[in-house]
């Protein structure tokens, strides 16, 4: 069982690792200064593709639930991170975004009835500290609107993660993922047209390759893995994995783009990875094993999470992150 859980965590971690490559793809392959267009192309075509493959549309309450989840996890999240990316240095935006695990811990306690533990809280604080060492610069300038947007981005995606756990769709995973991507893309469509205008007429081969990567790998595949992890793990376990994005983005910037990597950044990356490992440790597993049939309430919470059953008593059945993290050379990214 422990081996299966570890494999599931590693597979889910592929999603934020892929999102960490968005900065590299954006700077090297995409047209400049079109982050909302990139977010739109990343979401809407991928969602339409998954809906076409699964041939499944929402029914009943899942029309509005898919709209809410798609807006939180994708549409509103990308738009807010776009504002943060343009008004804040990337390190500040990433550090504020790293507050998401703390927000998810609180939301999970309120909406799912999961107990807040000292270990998880300390791991979340360590994650924020590690990300700040990894990407925050001493000369960073603050902006009230940008800070509000970055915090809002962390909050809406955190709420989306928790609600995705509370509202378990009866449809196949790929269908549910497609619904959310379409909903998020439709939210982004008018915003992108209003802010950036129509797409450029001429797109090069590298442009098309970059957009294809973001849509197929960065959205269709990555979000399917992400939502699968949310179904099978607790929201707090999943949200910590998002801290991998700045680590991967910084590492790729060093390996591929030749960016400098200071000793403090290495320490920050190690702190982040340490926080991830601590946060993924199963709760009370040793106690359950030693007591046989006698189980602690925390163990049942973990079991319900692995089975995709929402905690609590609800009768309903209960990237741009990567863009904002490493704007260490150019200040405008997708």
Write structural notes for this entry.
The structure is a single chain. With 334 residues, the protein is an all-alpha fold. It has one domain. It has 16 helices and no strands. It is globular. It starts with a helix and ends in a 9-residue tail after the last helix.
Largest sheet: none
Overall pLDDT level: 83
Structural classification: mainly alpha
Query: What percentage of amino acids are in beta strands?
Result: under 5%
Number of strands: 0
Helical segment count: 16
Q: State the order of secondary-structure elements, H for helix, E for strand.
A: HHHHHHHHHHHHHHHH
Summarize the amount of helix as a percent range: over 70%
User: What's the number of domains?
Assistant: 1
Silhouette: globular
Poorly predicted segments: 289-303, 305-334
The radius of gyration computed from the alpha-carbon positions, rounded to a whole number of angstroms, is 19 Å
Head-to-tail CA distance between termini: 39 Å
């Amino acid at each position: 069982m422990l081996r299966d859980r570890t494999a599931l965590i590693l597979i889910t971690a592929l999603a934020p690792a892929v999102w960490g490559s968005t900065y590299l793809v954006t700077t090297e392959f995409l047209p400049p200064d079109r982050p909302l267009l990139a977010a739109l192309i990343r979401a809407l075509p991928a969602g339409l593709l998954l809906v076409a493959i699964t041939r499944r549309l929402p029914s009943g309450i899942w029309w509005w639930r898919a709209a809410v989840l798609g807006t939180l996890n994708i549409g509103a999240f990308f738009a807010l991170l776009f504002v943060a990316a343009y008004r804040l240095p990337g390190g500040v935006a990433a550090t504020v975004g790293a507050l998401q695990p703390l927000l998810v811990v609180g939301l999970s306690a309120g909406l799912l009835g999961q107990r807040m533990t000292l270990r998880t809280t300390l791991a979340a604080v360590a994650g924020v500290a590690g990300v700040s060492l990894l990407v925050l610069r001493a000369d960073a300038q603050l902006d009230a609107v940008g800070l509000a947007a970055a915090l809002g981005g962390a909050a809406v995606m955190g709420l989306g993660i928790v609600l995705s756990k509370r509202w378990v769709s009866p449809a196949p995973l790929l269908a549910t993922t497609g619904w959310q991507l379409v909903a998020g893309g439709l939210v982004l469509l008018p915003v992108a047209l209003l802010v950036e205008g129509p797409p450029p007429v001429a797109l090069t081969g590298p442009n098309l390759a970059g957009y294809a990567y973001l849509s197929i790998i960065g959205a269709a595949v990555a979000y399917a893995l992400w939502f699968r992890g949310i179904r099978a793990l607790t929201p707090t376990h999943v949200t910590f994995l998002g801290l991998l994005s700045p680590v991967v983005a910084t590492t790729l910037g060093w390996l591929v783009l030749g960016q400098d990597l200071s000793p403090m950044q290495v320490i920050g990356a190690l702190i982040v990875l340490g926080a991830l490992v601590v946060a993924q440790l199963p709760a009370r597993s040793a106690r359950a094993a030693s007591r046989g049939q006698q189980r602690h309430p925390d163990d049942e919470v973990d079991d319900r999470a692995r089975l995709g059953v929402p905690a609590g008593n609800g009768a309903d059945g209960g990237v741009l992150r990567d863009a904002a993290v490493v704007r260490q050379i150019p200040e405008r990214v997708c």
